[in-house]
């Protein structure tokens, strides 16, 4: 289910939204390596609760496209590369980008309201957890008719949540808020008709 067998051109044609998000995140990360420009880009887009409180509201969106290092980027983009295509196929392009963006947005909004005024953060993890949450909603609807999905997704969600709390320098608030947002949106999006249609494509 989550094993990618497409070549590059097939992947791009089949999953244009995931491809765009991968290219955007990787491209922005490369820009942050450029002396001068990179530092300014990070300073302009990083989530900073103090600056948000002073009217820089774009920082509720821009952090989900910035990463603090290569490992941070690779972890998030690998998750998007593996799990994003299946959700884009199931939900459709418009619904997939809605899940991704709203999960990231609500993760950053929750961070603003629940973390301290001097808290700073960046990363696509809230949006990635939204993808996991949407799969959780799919498991909820298909747990009796497609148990294989449950056997794959639930351990991934549990491990991801556990790592959220045991890891260091992790925005726990964005992860959990993104997960909940993705799950709730998934509950509203998925219905027996499109689930049956998806299963026929398996």
Automatic annotation (TrEMBL):
Residues annotated as domain Peptidase S54 rhomboid: 55-190
Ranges in a coiled coil: none
SUPFAM superfamilies referenced in this protein's UniProt entry, alphabetically: Rhomboid-like
Signal peptide: none
Membrane topology (UniProt): Multi-pass membrane protein
Gene Ontology MF term list: serine-type endopeptidase activity
GO annotation (BP), single: proteolysis
Intracellular or extracellular location(s): Membrane
A GO CC annotation given for this chain: membrane
Keywords: Hydrolase, Membrane, Protease, Transmembrane, Transmembrane helix
Membrane-spanning residues: 12-34, 64-84, 96-115, 121-140, 152-170, 176-192
Family from the record: Belongs to the peptidase S54 family.
Full protein name: Rhomboid protease GluP
Lineage, broadest ranks: Bacteria, Bacillati, Bacillota, Bacilli, Bacillales
